[in-house]
Design brief:
Oxoglu/Fe-dep_dioxygenase_dom; about 260 residues; Jelly Rolls; IPNS-like_sf; metal-binding; 4-stranded antiparallel beta sheet; alpha+beta
């Protein structure tokens, strides 16, 4: 336990703090702005957590029910997520061409996901990383996968808003191209309170849908068709979240045929 605590302290207070320094500079804020004003403190991981998990090969029945999906496409709810690169490929990110791509393995590397908090604090200049966990390539299907992840959470009682002291935001304004910042701005423009960071992360954890849940993982329940694409849509405390699902052309044709019938 002492080694795990020391390791978590190092990742949070050294690695992540330096990363937040770089991101603060991009926003043209004081070096420690994000660390002092947004990052949670009080334990080796603040209000976040360090996850160490060993995933074994998935049984055939589960594989078929989930269509290869291990975790729905989503964005993380905190500031940053630090993942250790591993040789078994399961993590995928959503590309600008609207396709899923495996994150390549690089020995000794850290994969950094930007979370919802950072997207909102940056006024949309930093985009929360859309990602999912999918079955590995065929030659890795029967291998175990070790996952080492540090989730860096923001201060729980903080209601997320752009850092208006940012000279970048003052000069260029905010960006509403995607996701959660656009939805949060919609609420604030109506004079409504946005969720606190604690509320935001807890409701998403509590209502997470299992990929094998055939009742909710369908168009008409938690999924919708937008511009011919199957999207996973949920609403949390007035904030609508829409994220891409598996793109399967034959599945899409089948769904469209059902809707037309």
């Amino acid at each position: 336990m002492d080694e795990i605590e020391a390791f978590s302290n190092y990742l949070t207070k050294s690695v992540n703090r330096r990363l937040l320094t770089v991101l603060s500079r991009v926003l043209e804020l004081p070096d420690d702005y994000l660390w002092d004003n947004v990052q949670s403190h009080g334990s080796p991981t603040g209000e976040g957590y360090f996850r160490h998990a060993l995933f074994r090969p998935v049984q055939k029945q589960t594989q078929e029910a989930s269509k290869g999906l291990r975790m729905h496409g989503h964005t993380d709810f905190g500031l940053t997520t630090l993942l250790f690169s591993v040789p078994i490929s399961c993590l995928q990110i959503w590309g600008r061409d609207e396709q899923w791509y495996y994150v390549p393995y690089k020995p000794g590397a850290l994969v950094i996901n930007i979370g919802d908090t950072l997207e909102i604090v940056s006024g949309g200049h930093f985009k929360a990383t859309r990602h999912r966990v999918f079955r590995p390539p065929a030659d890795q299907l029967h291998e175990e996968r070790l996952s080492l992840v540090l989730f860096n959470s923001s201060i729980g009682d903080l209601r997320m808003a752009p850092a208006h002291d940012s000279k970048l935001i003052q000069r260029e304004g905010c960006v509403e191209e995607q996701g959660v910042y656009k939805e949060f701005k919609k609420l604030t423009s109506q004079g409504k309170l946005v969720p606190t960071n604690r509320q935001w992360r807890e409701i998403q954890i509590a209502t997470c849908t299992d990929p094998t849940d055939t009742v909710n993982n369908r168009v008409g329940a938690h999924q919708v068709l937008i511009d011919g694409k199957v999207m996973h849509q949920r609403e949390y405390m007035g904030v609508k979240v829409v994220l891409p699902v598996i793109f399967d052309f034959q599945l899409l044709v089948f769904i469209l045929s059902l809707l037309d019938s």
